[in-house]
Write a structure and sequence with these properties.
The structure holds two protein chains of two kinds.
Chain A (H helix, E strand, L loop, with lengths): L1 H5 L2 E6 L5 H10 L11 E3 L7 E5 L2 E2 L3 H10 L5 E5 L1 H5 L9 E3 L9 E3 L6 H26 L1
Parallel strand pairs in A: 1-2, 1-3, 3-5, 5-7
Antiparallel strand pairs in A: 4-6
Chain B lengths: L3 E6 L11 E7 L2 E8 L16 H9 L6 H16 L5 H30 L2 H22 L8 E2 L2 E2 L5 H27 L1 H7 L7 H7 L3 H5 L12 H5 L12 H25 L16 E9 L2 E9 L5 E7 L1 H13 L7 H7 L4 H5 L1
Antiparallel strand pairs in B: 1-2, 2-3, 4-5, 6-7, 7-8
Helix pairs in contact in B: 1-2, 2-3, 3-4, 3-10, 3-12, 4-5, 5-10
The chains are: A alpha/beta, B alpha+beta.
The structure holds iron/sulfur cluster.
Iron/sulfur cluster sits at the interface of chains A and B.
């Protein structure tokens, strides 16, 4: 399954981010950072995705969407929380409609801090996520044997 | 008559960078009715005003939306300054205008890119975003951050910008203008782009007034409600709103392309005329009892800021009415009777910013 770590497909979901992190995620795809040269592609389809990038904290309305997206993704999968909102709630942690970071509903593998998280750190986070992905792949192989 | 089907659109959808949900009632391929439902991004940050003091609140307000984040801090600080009766120095006013217009340029370029992406015109998407990075580089060099800059504060701006840096900004403006003139031509002339935009989602001037639409949507139908025409600093810079009267997606797109060029001119004039002096005034003490409202022309239209003071350091109410929120009725109207394939185009041409809408 080396192809997944060589060319991971990413699903991006905006939980309740302020867009700041979203546009930085998108900026990663565009010419200045251009992650496509590493084979990283942004997809809209959870069934095709290996890495779930989530920006923003979860609230009551979207927690089921987040869960569903996560469940729809095939194993092995990695979740990367982008931005301080997704990590812990950030500036919005005291808001009445915020439940907390993404890890309150699904397991998170990599945390990328920053408000907004810089494209460099997002890429770094994804690369860290790849290592986790490989580990999970190996584990799955072992289990099969 | 065909059977009616309901197709859900969103919240997670490849064409939408942000979660909004639409229930599209279809008759064959025609949309008969669209029912929006929102709330996926609601955080409830206005209520934080009760627990954060008015200065901290600037930074919360900035995070209403990451794209027009400067505009939000501009509007909020404007409202607080009005409430506290603070007159900010002229230099700060000009710096705010420069930053506000730069934000508009980056927001419009971002939008043009998303539009191209939704059409499947990938190279155009990349070009728009490549040009946009030049604006972000300027932001980064001056403030240290790319999107959320925390540049505005109550009483002025956070730091001064050196004349050399301002010259550099003017130089960048020239570069961007040249590039936008080239890329804008694609939106203006290319047949495949025009096929998707011309004659789609037409809104008449009367409909704009009835639905109280704002921003480029209103201006694309020839209705001028640009807040900048009433602002003294913009008046001094010779601001004239850009209007078109076709009222379709193409017109809205062209308004934005022209506004980029216009903003470049405004910035260059502002840099030429910028007065010397202080860049902020000290602000102390609690906010007085009373309220104040302030309007700012965001990239997407009129933003309305309302603050209410109660004699302590906390505001008892901070309220934002954002442009996308007001434009949703206009969107629902244009969706009636459109083809299913055009839905993404129509949704995009109001330049929806969901995190603004829901706060
Ligand atoms: S971390 Fe900051 S920039 Fe990112 S979504 Fe949250 S508030 Fe916005």
């Amino acid at each position: 399954m080396a192809y997944t770590t060589k060319s991971p497909w990413i699903l991006h979901y905006d939980a309740s981010s302020c867009n700041g992190c979203d546009i930085e995620v998108l900026a990663c795809l565009t010419p200045l950072y251009d992650v496509e040269r590493f084979g990283i592609i942004n997809t809209g389809d959870p069934k095709q995705a290996d890495i779930l990038l989530i920006t923003g904290a979860v609230n009551d309305q979207n927690k089921n969407v987040v869960k569903q997206l996560y469940e729809q993704m095939p194993d092995p999968k990695v979740v990367v929380a982008v931005g301080i909102c997704a990590c812990s709630g950030g500036v919005f942690r005291d808001c009445y409609n915020i439940l907390g970071g993404v890890d309150t509903v699904i397991p998170v593998d990599v945390y990328v801090p920053g408000c907004a998280a810089r494209p460099e750190s997002i890429i770094d986070g994804v690369v860290k996520g790849l290592a986790v992905l490989e580990e999970k792949t190996n584990k799955m192989k072992e289990a099969k044997r | 008559m065909g059977k009616r089907t309901i197709v859900p659109f969103g919240p997670q959808h490849p064409a939408l960078p942000e979660p909004i949900h639409l229930d599209l009632e279809l008759e064959d391929e025609k949309v008969v009715r669209a029912i929006p439902s929102i709330g996926y991004v609601h955080r409830g940050l206005e209520k934080l005003a009760e627990t954060r003091d008015y200065e901290q609140m600037t930074y919360v307000m900035e995070r209403v939306c990451g794209i027009c984040s400067f505009g939000h801090s501009y509007g909020y600080t404007g409202a607080v300054e009005g409430l506290m009766d603070i007159e900010i120095p002229d230099r700060a006013k000009y710096l705010r205008v420069i930053f506000h217009e730069l934000s508009r340029v980056h927001s419009h370029l971002l939008w043009l890119g998303l539009l191209a992406d939704a059409m499947g015109f990938d190279s155009l998407f990349m070009h728009c975003w490549r040009i946009r990075e030049k604006v972000l580089d300027v932001f980064e060099e001056i403030t240290g951050a790319r999107v959320i800059m925390s540049f505005c504060k109550v009483g002025g701006v956070r730091k001064d910008v050196t004349p050399e840096m301002l010259n550099k900004v003017a130089g960048v403006c020239n570069e961007i203008e040249e590039e936008v003139r080239k890329t804008g031509m694609v939106f203006m002339k290319d047949t495949s782009v025009k096929n998707r935009l011309v004659g789609k989602g037409v809104l008449s001037k009367q409909e704009i007034i009835d639905l109280s639409a704002v921003g480029p949507v209103a201006r694309g139908s020839g209705f001028d409600n640009d807040v900048r025409t009433t602002e003294p600093t913009y008046k001094a810079l010779g601001f004239e709103p850009i209007l078109r009267d076709e009222g379709d997606c193409y017109a809205r797109c062209m308004v934005r392309v022209d506004e980029i060029i216009q903003s470049m001119n405004l910035i260059r004039t502002a840099i030429k005329d910028i007065p010397t002096g202080d860049f902020c005034v000290p602000v102390k003490g609690p906010v007085p009892v009373g309220d104040f409202a302030y309007r700012v022309e965001q990239p997407r239209g009129e933003g309305f800021y309302y603050v209410q003071g109660n004699g302590t350091k906390n505001l008892s109410r901070a309220r934002v009415r954002t442009p996308t929120n007001i434009n949703i009725p206009a969107l629902v109207k244009t969706l009636q009777g459109c083809d299913l394939q055009d839905v993404t185009m129509l949704v995009l041409t109001i330049d929806p910013c969901i995190s603004c809408t829901e706060r």
